[in-house]
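Final report, Chapter 2: Outcomes

The project's central promise was a pipeline that accepts a single protein chain and returns its three-dimensional structure in a standardized token representation, suitable for archiving and comparison. That pipeline is now operational. To close this chapter, we reproduce one record exactly as it appears in the project archive, with the input sequence first and the structure output second.
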Amino acid sequence: MNIKGAILVLIAVTGLGASSTTNFDAPPKRFQAPTSVTLKTMPPDEIGAYCAEWGAQRRDAAGCWIEATDTLAMVDPYSVTDGFAGHLLKHELGHVNGWSATHEK
């Protein structure tokens, strides 16, 4: 738990210009469900620092879920290549639905 009391799940990516072949773990079916969450998008050069404010140890985050505020923060989908944002969103929504940071299968 970080200093602000949030449970933080983050995904770090080297090079946010990744193509649609970027291999994010997909959450197991039990964590794939309709959900409601606040979505915050921001430029690639800001997302890492924002996630770090909530306790992320890495500054190359492409997205994070902040349980304390029920906010999913991720890189602006218009600033990355086609397909990247969709894979990232599916991954992060799995965390919103209870998938742990250990990425159990």
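Archive annotation: The CA atoms of residues 72 and 84 lie 16 Å apart.
This record, like all others produced under the grant, will remain available to the consortium after the project formally closes.
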